[in-house]
## 1
Amino acid sequence: MQVYDAGRKLWTTTGEEQEAAKKDFFEIFKTLEGQLGGEPYFGGENFGYVDVSLIPYYGWFYAYETMANISMEAECPKLVAWAKRCAQKKSVSESLVDEKKILGFVHELRKRLGLE
């Protein structure tokens, strides 16, 4: 839930509130990156439950970057490498939502919320 809430604040806020949201967001993702360590997956050598739970957020990275003017790769390079590694799995690549569709969805939500 923390990942979702932190990500949502990136595209629903502006100014100082968004800057605080960025700090919180990266704190969470850097904690996850620390848990990953030097392993290929959160379960070590095996793709597992934590990977399955987190990989859907990879599709949201583009929207987060676009809406909050951030760089996931610059801030969390190990996590981005993990996501790219996961996306090489057929089961993952076939289930991820296109990042541009997610960005379009975010714009539509912002309009409905009166933010655009």
## 2
Amino acid sequence: MDTQNLEKAATRIQSWWRGTVVRRTLLHAALRAWIIQCWWRSMQAKMLEQRRRLALRLYTCQEWAVVKVQAQVRMWQARRRFLQARQAACVIQSHWRWHASQTRGLIRGRYEVRASRLELDIEILMT
């Protein structure tokens, strides 16, 4: 083999080696980029999940606050109706006691409670 052929062969071997080194470097760079992209996607998913949980927690707190306010209002309304009914019962009782003390008679009667009204038949016999 002459020197020119040897130089050509050496040049081919060197170019093959440089190509192999460049391809290996590019492969390593691509793998590193892929690893970084996977890590970044997982971090984005974690941040999204954290934001979703925070939004859910805030929504839950607001819903509970609304439920508590509604319960307080309903309790206040029920108590007001109860107090009105108790006051009405006291008025009726006081009038009834006054009437009973005035008449001192015999009272017969019947009452019947229907869906939304009270039917009352009273018969008073004076003695």
